[in-house]
Structure formats: C-alpha cells, structure tokens
Amino acid sequence: MGRQLHYILANLARIHGPLMSLRSGKQITIIASSPDAAREVLKTHDRDLSGRYITNALPLGIGKEFRMLIVEIVELGMIPDLSDFYPILTGMDFQGIQKKRDEIVKNFITIWDDIIKERRKQESSIFGQRDFLDALIKEGFTNDQISQLILDLLLAGTDSSSMVTEWAMAELMRNQDVLHKLRDELKREIGTEMVKESHLAHLPYLEACVKETLRLYPPGPLLIPHRALQTCQVMGYTIPKDSKILVNMWAIGRDPSIFNDSLRFNPERFLDSSLDFKGTNFAYTPFGAGRRVCPGQPLATKQVPLILASLVHSFDWFLPGSIKSTELDMNDHFAITLKKKQPLQLIPKGRK
Ligand code: HEM
C-alpha cells in the first residue's frame, strides 16, 4: 500500500466500516476510521491499546518516565535551537541518523546543558542543579535509553512542525483571499513589529489557519501505530493481544459527513468552533489523545503559528516561473509523516 496507505485505508473503510482488520502473515492490523471508533481506541480502551512498536525507521519506544521528561522539557521551553543540528541532519535519512547517532547525541547534550544552565531557575525540575546527562543517569536511564530519547525528540519534533508550515503556505498561496485576511489580522494586531509569542493569543484567524491545515494534512495521518497490550473487545469485535492499531485521522478530517465542504481549505470553520487540540473531540485530534497523545503539542502549537505568522508578515511570496497558484501540486505521500510530494518552492521578497 506504500505511499498511498492513508487513501487506500480510507477507501476500504467506506466498504468495510469504521473498524476493520487486515492480516499480513501473523500480523493483525486494526484500523479505526470514524470519531466513534477513534474514541474507543484512544479513550475507552486507551489502557489496553496504548503499547508501541519499536522499529528502526521510527524508534519511538518511550515509556511513562520518558513521556514525563519530554513534557517537562517542552514546558520549560528547553528544546534547543534546531538550526544547530542542520549541518548534521540536512539531507540525512533515518539510516543516516542511526549511523551518526553518537555524534548527534553528543552535540545535543552539549547544547542542552548550556540551555539548562541558563534556565535553572525551576527548582522543581528533575534536572535541579545537575547536568542534563548526569541527571538522567541518576534517574536510572541507561545510555541507550538516553540516545533513544534524544533521537525521538529530534525525529518527532522537527519533521512534523516544518511539514505543517509547508502545507499551510501552499494553501495560503492557493487561497489568496485567506492570505489577505491573515495579513490584515497581523497588520492590525502587530503593526510593523516582528511577530512574538505574546502576540499569538490575539490572532484567532492565524490559529484557525493552523487548525485547518492540521485537519487536511495531519503530519501523523494514521497517528503512530499503537499495539494492543492485551486482548480486548472493541465495538463488539475481539482485538487480539499484539495487534497493531491505526487511527485514520486523515480520513476523519476529510469526512464530508463531519465537515461541511470537507476538501475546501476554509479556516472560517474554526472561528466559532469549540474544536481544539486537547484531544477531547474525536472528530479532530491531530495530536492524538489519551496516554499516547503527542507530548510536544504545547510547543508545536506555538512554534507553527509563530513561524507561519513570521513568514506571512515579513515577506511577500511568489511562485517561480509561470506556475499559477491554482496549479500548485497538492499531492501528498505517506512516509510515516504526510509529506508534500512536490516540495513547495516560493520566492520571498521582504515587506516594508
Ligand atoms: C504540528 C506538530 C506536531 C503534530 C501534529 C504531532 C502529532 C503527533 C501524533 C499524532 C503523535 C502520535 C499520537 C498517537 O500515536 O496516539 C505524536 C507523538 C509524539 N510526538 Fe508529536 N506532533 C507534533 C510535534 C511534536 C514536537 C514539536 C515534539 C517534540 C518536542 C513531538 C514529540 C512527540 C513524541 C516524543 C511522540 C511519541 C509519544 C509516545 O509515543 O508516547 N511532537 N505526535
């Protein structure tokens, strides 16, 4: 099914219903494709269905302690400036990252230690007065686990946010009326200043644009595979222990019975809506929900709007050559995250 997995599973769900099972050799895969089925997986049976598979391609093997650590790191705003990693990460695939693991981990720890030294005011932090590495070792984390945590953070935290920004910019280019409304809001609230985090609370249309992008292009279209920790009953079916569980958030976000004119990029639909990122409404959970909800959500929901607003507020954007905005290729392909098949190319011109 490869790069089209999310489409194919959405089509199959139209025939076979919101909870399907597929068998490949011994592996059973369960796919939830409606808000009710998503609620069963992510809420009702969260405890039984919140295991993970650890693979070379996606080594997200984090347990409860790691999750708490990530939440703490995110809350303290301790994610380093990722531009320091560009020289190592640029053009590198997952295999490359695994090969350069030691180098990446070493750099990460050095940069992180510096950040922690600067922000050591939070006495409640598990880091206290100790160095990052020292603190983790004293907490009982092994070297391998520490490397794992760092790779998880880098892999999970970089691709997703940049991908959402790219999709958002592509939609804004295709929908110039939306782009102008967003620009007006930014001009009204910010004037000629640079965009700052404190402005975000006053930019509802910007938030709606980000939400609408995440509805149509969730970076985790099938979330990240869950594993059944034990056999359980879901919607009258038996889910055997060790089944793989996918939730097709991409299909739910595009379902016309849930969202009016569902394929249209229309941020207005979020202006008077109570849909948020908390994962309580299963028609809209781009960050997942329950025990496995994305621990980077508080960071991502600031980072993405901040970057998008800065791009829109500071530059005019043009398509190269004679390409018309209506002709932009919006095809995607599935590669754990939902990538734009043709990377977006735009030419910036600084705004006065
Ligand atoms: C717009 C940006 C992002 C989106 C839409 C997103 C979405 C998701 C989704 C859907 C999952 C899987 C939930 C599940 O399987 O039930 C996930 C997991 C995860 N995310 Fe994010 N994410 C984003 C940014 C980030 C950032 C910035 C970080 C790190 C700082 C991060 C760290 C993680 C980690 C570590 C996991 C694995 C959690 C676990 O296995 O328990 N994410 N994310």
Walkthrough of the structure:
Helix 6 (101-118) packs across helix 8 (143-174), helix 8 packs across helix 10 and helix 8 (143-174) runs parallel beside helix 12 (297-314). The protein has a five-stranded mixed β-sheet. Strands 5-6 form a two-stranded antiparallel ribbon. A two-stranded antiparallel ribbon has the order 8-11. The longest helix has 32 residues, at 143-174. It is α+β, with helices and mostly antiparallel strands. Strand 5 (232-234) and strand 6 form a beta hairpin. The chain starts with a helix and ends with a strand. Mean pLDDT is 83; it is low at 80-92 and 122-129. It has helices at residues 5-16, 35-44, 64-75, 86-89, 94-99, 101-118, 132-138, 143-174, 176-190, 204-216, 249-253, 297-314, and strands spanning 19-24, 27-32, 51-52, 226-227, 232-234, 237-239, 244-247, 315-318, 332-335, 337-340, 347-350. It is built from twelve helices and eleven strands. The radius of gyration is 21 Å and the shape is globular. The chain has one domain (2-350): Cytochrome P450 (Cytochrome p450, Orthogonal Bundle). The structure holds protoporphyrin IX containing FE. Protoporphyrin IX containing FE binds at residues 52, 60, 62, 67, 70, 74, 79, 152-153, 156-157, 160-161, 164, 214, 219-220, 223-224, 226, 286-288, 292, 294-296, 299-300, 304. Protoporphyrin IX containing FE binds next to helix 3, helix 8 and helix 12. One of its GO terms (molecular function) is monooxygenase activity. This is Cytochrome P450. Heme binds at residue 294. Belongs to the cytochrome P450 family. Its cofactor is heme.
